[in-house]
Design a protein that fits this description.
single chain, about 90 residues, alpha+beta, 7-stranded antiparallel beta sheet, 7 strands, globular
Amino acid sequence: MDFSGTLVEWRGPAPYHFVPLPPDEADLVDEVKAEVVYWGVVPVRARIGATSFTTSMFPREGTWFLPVKDAVRRAEGLELGDAVEVSLAVGRD
């Protein structure tokens, strides 16, 4: 699935950057999560720009949050608040 989102920061012990999924895409993940979820997270393969990566999304604030690794942000020149285009595949493979 492809979608647009805004890079946000979630502050915990250390700041992390995420792209929250829009409602329609979050609903699609909810439909298949039972098949792939482990420890409450959903494994995904994602691409932002020319950078592909694997990670695990988790539910937060009524949607799913896609973590965006520092290496991805650096490679794509992303800053907090930037709009990003994401290509996402749910599952490990």
